[in-house]
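Hello support,

Our group uses your service weekly, and this is the first time we've seen a run hang past the timeout. The protein is TNF receptor-associated factor 3-like. I'm not sure whether the cause is the sequence or the server load. Input pasted verbatim:
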Amino acid sequence: MEPSKKMDSAGTLQTNPPLKLHPERGAGTSIFVPEQGGYKERFVKTVEDKYKCEKCRLVLCNPKQTECGHRFCETCMAALLSSSRPKCTACQEGIIKDKVFKDNCCKREILALQIYCRNEGGGCTEQLALGHLLVHLKNDCQFEELSCVRADCKEKVLRRDLRDHVEKACKYREATCSHCKSQVPMITLQKHEDTECPCVVVSCPHKCSVQTLLRSELSAHLSECVNAPSTCSFKRYGCVFQGTNQQIKAHEASSAVQHVNLLKEWSNSLEKKKKSANTQSGR
Ligand SMILES: [Zn+2]
Ligand SMILES: [Zn+2]
Ligand SMILES: [Zn+2]
Ligand SMILES: [Zn+2]
Ligand SMILES: [Zn+2]
Ligand SMILES: [Zn+2]
Ligand SMILES: [Zn+2]
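Update from on-call engineer: The timeout came from a worker crash unrelated to the input. Re-ran successfully.
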């Protein structure tokens, strides 16, 4: 791995909050145990028969030894013992459950056997002790597939590519908006510029002559834009003129006589209403 100033010794990206490239590190050593039967790993040297299970013929996992001296995986032995008259599959002798014991010496020897990494096909050339497999995969194997450290990113990347992915390729890495300088996830940058960024120059929807309008100024501009549609301020007195702010201005300047007439009509009709209301209440 190339050294990088942005990384500390634990391989943690110095961001805020810190992104951990090795979330599993320090989680405790554990040894890989297949769900059923023995190990299917590819061993560097041919494994001696004494390390193979008499039932599944794979390399023993958590070996148990019978009184007759034959060895079985823990799960294979459990399967044998579940029958009514358990028999050793190697010598046909009956198995007495209480005489079966954990063969820890054999287990230690097996866990020390050298294997090829499970990601050999992906490019890992490591040879390691069987007992070290899980630690290697969890912490070290450069060809292990990992999830991106950013929860929103669903991409899987090899450990050796993770740093590059996080810093340079991840769609969810922070990018700086060139207009407002705020930090935005890369994947939403375009949308931010197109619909949200307050510092982007937008054109007036009414196609007026103002050319330097920022998105943050748009709503204030719309109420005063010369091309915005509006109504005459004498509308409530009956003027039906409609037009742009500019046309309304011109209309109001040139329609003083009409507007005064409208006012007269309006006040006349108001008086009539009052009179008829009075005569009605006078009955
Ligand atoms: Zn077995
Ligand atoms: Zn036997
Ligand atoms: Zn590996
Ligand atoms: Zn990512
Ligand atoms: Zn912006
Ligand atoms: Zn405008
Ligand atoms: Zn008017």
